[in-house]
Amino acid sequence: MLWEWLVMPQGLKNVPATFNRTVSHVLRPLRAFAPSYFDDIFVHSRAEDGLSAVDVHLRHLRKVFEMMRENKLYANLKKCVFCAPEIPVLGCYVSKSGVRADPEKISSICSWPTPKNQTELRQWLGLANYLHKYTKDYAGLIQPMSSLLKKDVAWDWRPEHQDVFDAVKKSLASAPVLMLPDTSRPFHVVCDASDFAIDVLSCSLMLRVVSAS
Question: Interior CA angle at 103 toward 170 and 101, to 5°?
């Protein structure tokens, strides 16, 4: 007698990729306002055609729910957030104003004590690297600390390393809100490189409306 799973069981190594591919395929017709990442669906809406943002949002939610029902996908109501001005997305908070870093992650990084060995430094950099886009010239800034992680390099924490450590903390403590890309404007790609880092920036120029001096 042969048995066949009715649904994919947990524990198989290809479950995450298969599930992500399935959800992406199901929601493909709605991706303009409902992108997904694994089991998270982010529905975003704005006022249009004389309707308020809330009315448009409710319309979008209905389309998402109908698509989920047709494909037997189920949502956990306790984990759902509706009509929120800001939502957490992969360690950041996204709103119409832009993308800001998660305050809890910033607090964890800024409260981290001075590393005493390579393991502790590697752990701290693992946290800080996740929010590197909020620190200007991050790769160049941390280069002195990164050099301590090279093979066969003896641990020697000097004042210059402490200065860099404190500078990254200070930068993240005042992390800016990053603007969302405006696809109606042309994008420019800016590149730079040095002996120990490369930098690529995709940006769009904002028009100055009013200026005074």
Answer: 80
CA distance 164 to 133: 16
CB atoms within 10 A of CB 90: 11
Hey, what amino acid is at 127? L
Answer yes or no: are the C-beta atoms of 56 and 47 closer than 8 Å: yes
User: Residue 206: what pLDDT?
Assistant: 64
- The three-state secondary structure class of 109 is helix
CA atoms within 13 A on the CB side of 198: 2
State the 10-residue block means of pLDDT for the chain, 213 residues long: 86 90 95 93 92 95 96 92 91 90 93 95 94 87 92 92 95 89 83 79 64 40
What pTM did the predictor assign? 0.74
Task: Please give the DSSP secondary-structure letter assigned to residue 6.
Answer: S
Q: Is 203 helix (H, G, I), strand (E, B) or coil?
A: strand
Helix (H) or strand (E) holding 86: strand 86-89
Within 13 A of 20's CA, how many CA atoms are on the CB side? Answer: 7
Domain ranges within the chain, ordered by starting residue: 15-84, 101-173
Residue 174 CB contacts under 8 Å (≥ 6 apart), including other chains: none
